[in-house]
Amino acid sequence: MESKIKEFMNLVKQRNQFEPEFLQAVVEVAETVIPYIASQEIYNGKNILLRMCEPERVLMFRVPWIDDTGEIVVNRGFRIEMNSAIGPYKGGLRFHPTVNLSILKFLAFEQVFKNALTTLPMGGGKGGADFDPKEKSDGEIMRFCQSFMSELFRHIGPNTDIPAGDIGVGGREIGYLFGMYKKLRNEFTGVLTGKGMSWGGSLIRPEATGYGTVYFAQSMLATRKDTIKGKVVTISGSGNVAQYACEKATQLGAKVVTLSDSSGYIYDEDGIDAEKLAFVMELKNKKRGRISEYLTKYPKAKFFKGERPWAVKCDIAMPCATQNEVHIEDAKKLLANGCYVVSEGANMPSTPDAVHAFQAEKIMYAPGKASNAGGVATSGLEMSQNSLRIVWTREEVDERLQKIMSNIHENCIKYGTKSDGYIDYVTGANIAGFVKVADAMLAQGVV
Ligand SMILES: NC(=O)C1=CN([C@@H]2O[C@H](COP(=O)(O)OP(=O)(O)OC[C@H]3O[C@@H](n4cnc5c(N)ncnc54)[C@H](O)[C@@H]3O)[C@@H](O)[C@H]2O)C=CC1
Ligand SMILES: O=C(O)CCC(=O)C(=O)O
User: Is the pTM of this model over 0.90?
Assistant: First the structure.
């Protein structure tokens, strides 16, 4: 089997030599899915996984805009339309200076499996730009979004490709993108998700990724007759996903002791309660400040410059910032300190070595494509509401979200339970996602 995986990866590497993040995402899937394919007659000899590794379409375009000093700036925009076997392309847009083809292809590849897990009819895609929103004025952000959409609009649509937010793209950016799309197309449709509540958005979409990550942790704990109540939780990031993971974990009786950004992390031994989180939300979403400013209001907390929060003792860790933010040394520290649940809010935050370390110790470890699927699932619910031209209540959406997260968990158990009873959520999520997409691809022929 190892030689089959190696042979497969050699083929993928030949074509994508300079794309380390993409190759990392593919190998993790290949290791678990290739043995499964070998055991299933219907998938044999169809090269399905290889087909899944090739995007259906890659768009790359110039994004020129004018900054506040009058200078013309040029960024690069992308949209990866990865797989539409089970529905229109669906996935977020990332605005961050590190954005490149490799990062967006890894995210689009993960999105295909994740979207299949949600049980909703959504294919996978991802996009963005190497634009740095940090320290840009509102006007600059708006002009950038308008320029970005002035090209993207020709390639997307409510039945073709439906982008949403990701790092650096929140409610404000979705508003500017939507406004430009509407102007260019002269139609009001559900072409983006994460919209404002008064213009087609869904209640709970802002909360959904973070809440879903906590719901998934709850499901994992329940397999060992345990709950989140009273647990100490470390969270990285302080953006959309981190904020709502913190909110839900706290509401359920856990104590969240860390949050971070790219400058370092804060540790608050007493826990980041609702009032403190409201301060963080104001700081990050409105003032767009740094996490160290938490100490101006809560001086008892500590700030660790340039560090990640994984050396802090905890029961549960939720990486909610970015890819490859939990290295093997971090994993060892988490394990040594007794952490026994890792529920990923971010996409691929743990390096392969870190994942293997968690699994070797048989702790409950959920990969992002399973545990953070609540965001895109609720985007799917936003699309349904837009199509039906109705609005569900907060309770209705939250109930559906909880049901979807619990379904994903069940599917991971179905495909990931080992002979000794250990639930390998990586294997479970990869195979469950693969089966759904592969069956649709088989039915649709070689296209
Ligand atoms: N927004 C969503 O609905 C979903 C987001 N995700 C993933 O969750 C993660 C966070 O996304 P959002 O919260 O939406 O973005 P955001 O832009 O609201 O927040 C990102 C956070 O990560 C931190 N961060 C970014 N790069 C970093 C770095 N190099 N080192 C340390 N910290 C860094 C930022 O300071 C910020 O706190 C990403 O991996 C994203 O792909 C996954 C599923 C859905
Ligand atoms: O809501 C969406 O369409 C995308 C969410 C996303 O980008 C993700 O799941 O990584």
Answer: yes
